Amino acid sequence: MTPAAEALNRIIRTRRSIFPPDYTGEEIPVSVVETILANANYAPTHRLTEPWRFTVFRGEGKTRLADFLGDTYQAQTLPELFSEAKWKGTREKVTRSSCVIAICMELHPEKVPEWEELAAVACAVQNMWLTATALNVGAYWSTPGNLALFSEFLGLGPNEKCVGLFYMGYHQLPERTPVRKPIEEKVKWVTE
After folding, report:
1. 141 known ligand binder
2. Is residue 60 situated within a structural domain?
3. What is the mean pLDDT of residues 125-134?
4. Is 46 annotated among the ligand-binding residues?
5. Is CB count within 10 Å lower at the N or C end of the chain?
6. Contacts of 139 (CB under 8 A, 6+ apart)
7. Could you tell me the residue range of the domain that residue 70 belongs to?
8. Could you tell me what percent of the chain has a pLDDT over 70?
9. 123 in a domain, yes or no?
10. Is 171 annotated as a binding residue?
11. Rounded CA gap, 11 and 6, in Å?
12. Does a structural domain hold residue 1?
């Protein structure tokens, strides 16, 4: 096996979700974020629609995002069900992250079905995640329940939608291979 294949296998097999409580607080340089986003741009895309769109929240932008998430949680929750701990936790996920990226997609219904655009965006996010893993940047993709409200907050057009948030931060956790059932349980071979 070539060194490149070995490195790729290790990165793929050690990629995992790393959450904001495990972030160190060290800022991710803009150049690193740009590298992660540049690799997203090389995802496969049917009919070359390149549907992925990203909004990066850093610095005071994170405060705006945290306020939006906290305010919408409070507005959508009945007073008797409101949890101060959940409100605080929603905000802290953002503020503990070095940056948060809104994952959006631009739809091209005249060219491809929406599921293909979403699949392309998911591939772009996987490229981001693998690049982050290689750079020791922790990350995870979250899909908050208030995604429908993100269109106005992000200023999205009629053919755009937000499909989640990608939280990122440096961490010091040891490398760990995720647990998976054997691939043999998930593959059928047809040889005749």
Report:
1. yes
2. yes
3. 98
4. yes
5. C
6. 17, 18, 128, 129, 132, 133, 166, 167, 168
7. 21-172
8. 100
9. yes
10. no
11. 9
12. no
What's the number of domains the chain is made of?
1
pLDDT grade, residue 178 (50/70/90)?
A: confident
143 is in an annotated binding site: yes
Confidence band, pLDDT 50/70/90 cuts, at residue 86: very high
The answer on pLDDT for 176 being more than 90 is no
Cβ burial 52-72 (10 Å sphere, 16+ → b, else e): bbbbbbbeeebeebbebbbeb
| 64 assigned to a ligand binding site | no
Check whether 17 is labelled as a binding-site residue: yes
Residue 40 placed within a domain: yes
pLDDT of 81 > 90? The answer is yes
CATH of the domain at 112: 3.40.109.10
For residue 10, pLDDT beyond 90? yes
